[in-house]
Amino acid sequence: MKVKVDQKRCKQCELCAVNCPKEAISFTETFNEFGYRTTQIENDKCIACGMCYIMCPDGVYEVLG
Asked: Which end of the chain has fewer CB atoms < 10 Å from its terminal CB, N or C?
């Protein structure tokens, strides 16, 4: 795992997915406790660039490297 995701904080703004240079982030059909779809990261595509961390206004992502 290159990026840790806190699904509870996600508000499905999609800034992470739109700005991911490798298109490694998508939304699942699962909903968090606030009714937003949760994200998933395809680790084989992820390069741990930190763009999701930078773009997310809700602190959903933590880049582990």
From this structure: C
Tell me the pLDDT tens digit for each residue of 16-42.
999 999 999 999 999 999 999 999 999
HSE-CB for 62 with a 13 A CA cutoff: 6
Q: Which domain holds residue 18?
A: 3-55
0.85 surpassed by pTM:
yes
Among residues 42, 53, 60, which one has the least CA distance to residue 19? Answer: 53
Alpha-carbon span 4 to 56, nearest angstrom: 13
Whether residue 64 lies inside any domain: the answer is no
Domain count, the chain: 1
